[in-house]
Amino acid sequence: MPTRFFGEPIKRAEDPRLLTGRGRYVDDIDLPGQLHVAFLRSPLAHARIRSVDVSAAREMPGVVAVWTYDDIGPCQRRMPLLIPHPDLTHPYTRYPLAKDEVNHVGEPVAMVIAESRYAAEDALEAIVVEWEELPPVVDIERAIRPGAPLVHEELGTNVAAHYVGIVGDPERAFAQAAHVFRERLVIERSAGMPIETRAVLAVWKDDEDLLEVWDTTQAPIVIRNALASLFGLAPTQVRVIAPDVGGGFGCKIMVYPEEVLVPYAALVLKRPIKWTEDRLEHFVGTNHERLQIHDAEIAVDGEGRILGIRDRFLHDAGAYTPYGIIVPIITACQLPGPYKVPNYHVEFRAVYSNTVPVSPYRGAGRPHACFVMERLLDRVADELGLDRAEVRRRNFIQPHEFPYDVGLIFQDGAPTRYDSGNYPGMLDLLLERMDYRRLVEEELPRLRAEGRSVGVGIACYVEGTGIGPYEGATVRVEPTGQVYVATGMPQQGQAHKTVLAQIVAEELQVPLESVQVVEGDTAHFQFGSGTYASRSAVVCGSAVALAAKKVREQGLALAAEELEVAVEDLVVEDGRVYVRGVPERGFTWAQIAQLANPLRYAYAGDLVVRPRPWTGPALPPGRQPALEATEYYSPPHATWASGAVGALVEVDVETGQLRFLRLWVVHDCGKMINPLVVEGQVHGGIAQGIGGAFYEKLHYDENGQLLNASFMDFLMPTAMEIPRMEIAHQETPSPLNPLGVKGVGEAGAIPMPAVVAAAVEDALRPFGVRITRMPLDPDQIWRLTHPAEA
Amino acid sequence: MKPPRFRYCSPESLEEALAVLGEFGDEAKPLAGGQSLIPMLNMRLARPSVLVDLNRIPALAGIERTDRFLRIGAMTRHRAVERSESVARAQPLLAEAIGYVGHLPIRTRGTVGGSIAHADPAAELPGVLLALDGTVELQSRRGHRTVPARDFFVDLLTTSADPDELVIAVRFPVLPPRSGTAWLEVARRHGDYALVGVGAVVTLAEDRRTIRDARLCFIGVGNTPVRATGAEAALRGQPAAADTWRSAAEAVRNELDPASDIHASAQYRRSVAGVLTERALALAVQRAQEGTAG
Ligand SMILES: Cc1cc2nc3c(=O)[nH]c(=O)nc-3n(C[C@H](O)[C@H](O)[C@H](O)COP(=O)(O)OP(=O)(O)OC[C@H]3O[C@@H](n4cnc5c(N)ncnc54)[C@H](O)[C@@H]3O)c2cc1C
Fold this sequence. Notes:
A: alpha+beta; Aldehyde Oxidoreductase, domain 4; 7-stranded mixed beta sheet; 6-stranded mixed beta sheet; B: alpha+beta; Uridine Diphospho-n-acetylenolpyruvylglucosamine Reductase, domain 2
């Protein structure tokens, strides 16, 4: 019997190291003679720079260099536009150090390199900048009015992109609908807050002609390629390593100014250079997400079936668009969710503002989409007097309707085409776990009779995961028996070392401990794009599976030849390949690896190297000395995971406090490689989603100052605020990839604003209020229930 | 987030500490648990040129009970207060409030004296001290004085202590018989500073149904902790009943003048102060009647 590794709830291989403090993050790495960097960041949201005087700062003790735009040689060009889009007609990216204008508080203006971070920060205070203040653009609704001040004068507009997507005939659908309901829905600004802030350490190794860079990035290969082309080096002269990375959530996938400036300083000054972002910098120097304002309408027939949706929304792009319009594109494409929307008009404008740029943060446009869709459906249910679950059931895409085309082009340039799913099954499972009928018909009335404000909400979502372009993996059985696996995707907590090892162990039937997964180091793998968009298991996992399968075939062929039997007569089990029914006739994987390699010298006593009769070259054509394969997997398009959540909440209407009494989650990410890891991802996502529903909001004032740039005032839920989650799984395999898997990385973050809105609204039914803005907070809940006092 | 340069000294006696403070005046700052001061240094919001570390002066820590008050040394950690039997017995309001101060690691480092001297208007200990009409013991090279809490907290993060004076202890007077207390607060998350908090101290008349004396102290609603003296006066002689709590809540809402910030509006704070007033009075009276004090 083969041992099962795939699908088993195996504990994370990375945890013992990390939990006992043996992790190694960029800031833990110190190189002899290293210098430290601090950045002077704009205190103003919008201003022209008249002059920057760094002369006093250069004289400060411990200061080695102070640079402005004039000093940064090859870095004097604009940062790359990473993802262009035809509708992004007015892209704009920054200079690594501001040239003559700053466009948000926190934009880097000058760079001090000193013997210590202390000395560097002291010197920042000695830099004198003469500013000419320009009108800050903060409110995106005002920014699109004629005559509004412009973020980028030369663009002539604040609208970076105007996108229109039309499916079917929305105008006709609305004209003929029995009912049309409108909502104005807002999701506020937020941002990813990894425990480990960004950090870069770079050294030019003169003796090796090598630029070595440790970077907390989600995409080391992208950074490597950017640095090589910027500095005119061969890609192999740049090595980028993402060691242990303490969380990413999307905001570490970018090419940030600091990521080119720190290596440049290492090249120029010929000393190791380190910069570690502090939390204040993170708030104003690392990309944000979330703010969108939707004007949405739904057209339904008399039974609550969707005839059409029209949504026009504004998306806050922040000051620059280095990551294109990925976030609003995802919103537009995912808005229909698991429902049939035959006629759909979606239109957005991505609007510049003098705030930190916007790029994906876990969820990446999906929480917004889910919030809009689910709010519309709740509205339909309430207006038509239908049960909220029933309305969803009436509109689901049915299991036999896959593949299902939404009709729009997704973020990867491919059609938005759902590959598989069972949405009615998912909802049934959720309702069963919730004991929904009893909950709604008995429990709620009973609690309400006690005077308690309790409410129930449900929300369903889909998640487009596992997009291309491709990822790759090398799998090699070493002659010592270990299995080496290298990929181009670093991890920031996703348990790659565990799940990729499971895939390999399953294929080769070797112990998990013998599989070593090496990632995040461009010296080990050269091609790929990085960890984002819930794609590791799908894209990288598939590449690993293909490579492992190839190695298995190589091993079987060699063993068959050596044992003089047919491949079909061999079994792979217990770390060995042997003849069916004759276990003693066979080899361990180590022995097969040695067989593959016609060495002249044995390097240990137990090796099977032995003299062979001459039959020609030691390595015949087509043979390689290693049991090794490198494979790439390129998905045809995204694979679509889905989920449904239910919440029972209680509101203290006098204080606006919110408490979760129960929280249920049903999740479907196709085949699960490791249910423990899947649940961990769901837990983290839900926790972050609760942040998005009740805590996390970045407050900008009208001058573009961020009012809560610290953990004192930017609130993330802690373990104390996260309720126990009751999770159930449904497994609808993806037909697209060899493993049948779908992504799960962002799942939990998506439905929480929607479900909390629904549940709170239900709890507040006696007040007849609608929840249209996320996140909520006690003050807002209190306002809804005390309109006279507020 | 690195502090500017400062000189660091760590005296081993109170006299030595007072001498340094006397010499440098407002150039110097005492360092207690560092839970508020270190972040301010790192953000360069505080720029003392001398830091006087109080952590090596054992005489400054300790909890003492006399028949008139509980005296807590400035360097006593929040956690020691939380675990103290005599605090639990003699000062139930303090015992109840202390658990709301931050999180365990913060309470393990943070000190009573630091919290009082820091005078955050949303902090629990200043509120408790004011609710109980406590006093602050100050000492400098120039001498020793005792300041009532109502004269000590003068403005946002500002006290009437002079720069060369150290808070060496605080005194919480013992409650009269037939008293009950309650501490309630609303915060955004566990361990956060309160949006609104209230400490209620109620002393009943001999009939145990009439209020002889009531004290209501609020945090998070002004630049200092605030006593609702009007509501307190109106409560005297009233029956211990729901109607009374409701009128007290109304009086509190009229009396307080909170400000808005990004976490809550002034209207919210005013309204919730009233809600907490009702709840806290009911609870304090129940405790007084049960003879459990708090
Ligand atoms: C995450 C977090 C959450 C928190 N939440 C809360 C909360 O909910 N409620 C709450 O009340 N507090 C909270 N705090 C603050 C905490 O209670 C602090 O410990 C307290 O406010 C200050 O005490 P300290 O001993 O750390 O003082 P320090 O930080 O060392 O000093 C604070 C100030 O007091 C001065 N000082 C200290 N001791 C003396 C003295 N003996 N004489 C004169 N001046 C002195 C210092 O010079 C400094 O100006 C929180 C802190 C953190 C970091």
